[in-house]
């Protein structure tokens, strides 16, 4: 694995094997003191291994820690990102037993209609993307992880990427339509959480812009067709069996069945 020392290579291998074997590892196997830059190098190495020889494709990114409350949980002053590969895109049905310690969040999904650039302003980003109602199911390769792992551990584990569910994408969405957009999460017809898009760095497109610039600093880009899960409106809830619906006012809704 390029640009990693032997210890970092070992950590990337441990995380990849945990992913492939669907077996969690003690979080102590990845040092809590791991610095963010080192953690991203490990994350990128794991992603490279997943996508090598066409096993999977890089299908997008998820953005985490987009509210002060979630940043405080992990003692961070900025968001962070993780990679979404082929297996992360769900058809809206999840077997609970196939996950480790899953949570559920409500998030908007941006879908790139063309490559995005670090020089794009907010308006350009909106013109270059579609927006879809979404659900994210974070999951981790660590035992007993939330919120008991460090920032470096989160980053190395691809920001605890699990699954995303993408609803019907819409074109020509304006800045004002996404401003303080209400989001609600229901389970079996009963609302269990809700808040507005203002929880996502003040506005979800701010999160998208942050990601594009952050990726550029790592020599990466959001390419045409990629999906970006932009950050949660709510604090994560533990995933349970049942029928979930995430609704976003005029942007519509999306469902998830957990068996």
UniProtKB/TrEMBL annotation:
<dbReference type="InterPro" id="IPR036663">
    <property type="entry name" value="Fumarylacetoacetase_C_sf"/>
</dbReference>
<dbReference type="InterPro" id="IPR050772">
    <property type="entry name" value="Hydratase-Decarb/MhpD_sf"/>
</dbReference>
<protein>
    <recommendedName>
        <fullName>2-keto-4-pentenoate hydratase</fullName>
    </recommendedName>
</protein>
């Amino acid at each position: 694995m390029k640009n990693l020392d032997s210890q970092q290579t070992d950590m990337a291998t441990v995380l990849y094997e945990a992913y492939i074997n669907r077996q969690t590892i003690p979080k102590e196997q990845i040092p809590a003191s791991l610095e963010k830059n080192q953690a991203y190098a490990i994350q990128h190495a794991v992603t490279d291994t997943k996508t090598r020889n066409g096993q999977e494709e890089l299908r997008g990114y998820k953005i985490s820690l987009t509210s002060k409350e979630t940043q405080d949980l992990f003692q961070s002053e900025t968001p962070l990102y993780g990679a979404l590969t082929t297996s992360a895109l769900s058809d809206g049905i999840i077997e609970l037993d196939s996950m480790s310690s899953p949570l559920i969040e409500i998030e908007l999904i941006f879908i790139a209609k063309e490559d995005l650039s670090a020089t794009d302003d907010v308006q350009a980003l909106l013109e270059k993307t579609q927006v879809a109602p979404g659900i994210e199911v974070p999951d981790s390769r660590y035992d007993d992880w939330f919120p008991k792992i460090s920032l470096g551990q989160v980053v190395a584990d691809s920001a605890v990427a699990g699954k995303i569910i993408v609803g019907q994408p819409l074109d020509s969405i304006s800045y004002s339509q996404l401003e303080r957009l209400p989001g609600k999460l229901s389970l079996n017809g009963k609302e269990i959480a809700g808040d507005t898009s203002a929880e996502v760095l003040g506005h979800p497109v701010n999160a998208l812009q942050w990601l594009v610039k952050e990726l550029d600093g790592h020599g990466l880009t959001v390419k045409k067709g990629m999906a970006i899960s932009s950050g949660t409106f709510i604090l994560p809830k533990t995933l349970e069996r049942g029928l979930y619906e995430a609704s976003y006012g005029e942007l519509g809704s999306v469902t998830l069945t957990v068996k």
